[in-house]
Known about the structure:
Helices cover 42% and strands 12% of the residues. The chain is α/β, with parallel strands linked by helices and 139 residues long. Strands 1-2 form a two-stranded parallel sheet. Strands 3-4 form a two-stranded parallel sheet.
Amino acid sequence: MIKIYEQCRKIKQQNKIGYVILNSDVKVEKRGELISHFADNPDCPIFLSTDAGGTGLNLQMADTVINVELPWNPAKINQRVGRINRIGQKAKKLTVINLVRTNCIESRIQDMLALKQSLFDAVLDEKLEISEVDFEAKG
């Protein structure tokens, strides 16, 4: 994550694009200020957050989530998207981008996430007629 922060600083300096960073180092009292700055300042279109910093956020003013690191649990992905998919969302479309490198562990994690999501859907959605989810095919 440190490399991402460094890249953002370079982008900000070169292109004059503002951003805020929310992680576990940011005190709870300051989080509202960061969200307000992001929401109200057109010169600050980027909100960077770790999972540790992002618990309980309402970011319905945003319309895009970019996952830099995929978690093993599909519920975490849904939780990240849920930060922007809130009541009061102004955008008609939301964009979710998963940065995944092919032929490496990230692509295997993405495949496993899809399988796990299929399992969750099969168990929790009565309308689906899925009777089995094949984990063996992916090893």
